[in-house]
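[User]
Um, tokens okay?
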Amino acid sequence: MHGDNTKNLGMAEQFFVEMMKIDRYEQRLKAMYFKRRFDERVEEVVPVRFLLQNSIQYILREKKSINLFREPMQFILVVKK
């Protein structure tokens, strides 16, 4: 904008003009959002991690279960590629 024409704008427009002056504001907002949601997302993942860890430990302890899961796991790994 030219000079001080922002005084003629409404508050919302002035706000956006000021936002445009901030370097890398989009990246900064994304970083703040990520930081704010980080703990919540970790809490979502932790139970799944423990479930997977316990399942793997069970499979490794039980030799019979290894044979039961070998073919389905091979299939899953082939399909994932």
